[in-house]
Amino acid sequence: MTSSPSHLRLPAVPLIQIESLSVRYGSKTALREVSLTIPHGSITAVIGPSGCGKSSLLGALNRLSDLVPGCTVSGTVRFGELDVHAADTNVQDLRRRVGMIFQKPNPFPLSIRKNIELPLRERARFSRAQLDERVERVLRDVGLWEELGDRLDDSALKLSGGQQQRLCIARALALEPEVLLMDEPCSALDPISSATVEDLIVRLSETCTIVVVTHNLAQARRISDELAFFWVRDDAGVLIESGSTHRVFRMPHAELTAAYLQGARG
Fold this sequence. Notes:
The chain has about 270 residues and is of the alpha/beta class. The protein has 10 helices and 10 strands. α6 runs parallel beside α7. The protein starts with 13 loop residues before the first strand and ends in a 5-residue tail after the last helix.
């Protein structure tokens, strides 16, 4: 059973400040003039129908959008004091600090151990003992050590879908990120694996700020502290409403939000 996040936490300190953010792919505007604050230490759920720019938002937060041909980003994203889209921003360091988990598990076609070691070796020099310690620590963090600790040299591709997704989360955690972006991390999983990943997300929020895109409204209500609802207007994604999950579900400010949460729209 997924534990509920606390909706009675002390007022959160802003960690990511998004102002007038727009994302375009060629002449197509995917996201228009979005302003949103992501609080430190929170789980922020991003909801809305397909095509409203949710994944584009995530890509702009750690500049994965840079890898998309024809994609242009305007507006401002500040991560603490860092201007994310400034020309002199170290993008590799940004992506270490702001990790990404995708909808479909994407382990490397390597052993379980090497899936975690590879990104570490690319960032710094570690001794064998340091690597072993980090591998064990992150596998324990995601609840995989008891399941896989005695077969670390097996191929990661032999794991179940739920195990692969948790391994991908462990791989991101190995770099000790401050933020995890999750793009529908449970949508490709069976209900039992999905519940396991939900529990993991809630646990990780104790040490990491999380932004999770989900189509599952019940999941958003269960695990998130903050909610951001997006919609499509004039063929572009726009932010309709944001605030504490507890407040938005109980007293949405916008009629469109209420209709979507009640299943009448979307």
